Amino acid sequence: MPAIETTDLTKQYGDTVAVADLDLAVESGSVFGFLGPNGAGKSTTMRMLTGLVRPTRGRATVAGADATDRDALRPRIGYLPETPPLYDHATAYEQLDYAAGLRDLDPERARERAGDLFDRLDLPAEVAAGRIADYSKGMRQKVAYVQAVLHQPEVVFLDEPTSGLDPRAARTLRELIVELADGGTTVFLSTHILPVVEAVADAVGILYDGELVAEGAPAELQRRAETGEARSLEDVFLELTGERADAAPSEGDG
Ligand SMILES: Nc1ncnc2c1ncn2[C@@H]1O[C@H](COP(=O)(O)OP(=O)(O)OP(=O)(O)O)[C@@H](O)[C@H]1O
To answer: Which of 9, 15, 38, 43 to mutate to test the pocket of ligand 1 (most atoms within 8 A of CB)?
Structure first.
């Protein structure tokens, strides 16, 4: 069974169709790169899949739970949104104690795991013991990432996870994503940084104007949109989401 499955998943805001009839299947233990231009509907999709926004119609299951059932989702999923929810007055450790408490994690083991991840991401212990209000953007991002994966969820949604990270931390984060998937976690990764997707994604979906215009393994998409030359995922992305003649290459997974 796929870790994420959507059928006709749709969200409308007034006259704006943010996401239109999305049919998606993401394999368990894979990294799925979710791409699309600004305003394509990526965040709206993630909000529906994490139970934060109710679909206008259609349905979705995530880690076996209905995506409208927040109580069932909570222990199974993690979410790093574009603007991470952090308490400025707390220290990183307090923030993560709170997150661990929400998920009934053993406090000591949660601290240990957080400490290990902070080490990997080069967030010094003395910084983690200081108030989040004084953190740089990259430091906040590190804490938010750790918060999203602390409980070892079955499915983790990452919205621009490398945002604000320096090159070393961004590389570590890419490694952590691959390790998550190797350990069986399904990673739903939305980013505009296409080389990251190229490096880590097993499959890619490209959203354009709320619609899925392509889905498949990165290499397969590159072949499908090809004209003979070696093409980057960026070329494919620009072709599919640019001045698309209405005969866009037929998407779907065949
Ligand atoms: N709460 C809302 N109310 C009204 N319209 C919304 C709301 N949230 C999103 N939209 C609209 O839905 C569409 C999709 O937005 P969304 O934020 O999902 O795009 P995105 O692909 O995540 O974009 P970006 O790459 O810029 O983050 C846009 O037209 C946006 O204006």
So the answer is: 43
